[in-house]
Amino acid sequence: MPNAIALLKADHATVKRLLRELEATTDRGVKVRERLVADIEREVKIHSQIEEELFYPTFKKAAEDTESEELFYEATEEHHVVDMVLPALKSTSPKAPEFAAKAKVLKDLIEHHAQEEETQMFVQARRLLDDEQLRVLGEELQARKKTLQAMWSNPILKPVKKLQAAVHKITPAKIKNAKANAIAAMKSDEARQR
Ligand SMILES: [Fe+2]
Ligand SMILES: [Fe+2]
Q1: DSSP summary character for residue 118
Q2: Which of 30, 57, 68, 86 could form a disulfide linkage to 180, CB 3.0–4.6 angstroms apart?
Q3: pLDDT the model gives residue 126
Q4: Which ligand places an atom closest to the C-alpha of 76?
Q5: Residues in the 5 Å CB sphere of ion ligand 1
Q6: Ligand 1: distance of its center to the CA of 96 in Å?
Q7: Angle at Cα 23 formed by Cα 21 and Cα 24, nearest 5°?
């Protein structure tokens, strides 16, 4: 069972590989582009969601009132930008002349965000959380990821997923921050009761 940071880094590697594959396509590879965009959407959305629901709140709580807390706000804002750029790429025809430019913007954005997480936020998380906390968090991330993956491929849950994605997209960063705080408070209550 990987710890939280190893799991998130492995996700980054997967998404970055898919984005590089997408960059190497041309407007003759319509089917390939469609498949890659769908794969990237699934990987990015599930990854962002587990970070926002579990990793970020735990990090924010641990980093409270330190300089590292700023990293939480930065990361949340960057997720928000990805939430806008991804649908723009999705709604662009793979044959359109602007498709490659939109794919490149998404790739640069995600590479930058993943790099910042790995070189700053995760480094601080390692300092702020001990091995046991990172292991427990890794298990929670893994379990949530499995559920979300199952939901993603379940046709019966498609409408539910669509609705959740729409709500997620229009949720301003402020509400996401409040949600992160509420989850962090709940988690520390749970930990105390354990
Ligand atoms: Fe992230
Ligand atoms: Fe990430």
Answers
A1: I
A2: 57
A3: 97
A4: 1
A5: 51
A6: 29
A7: 65
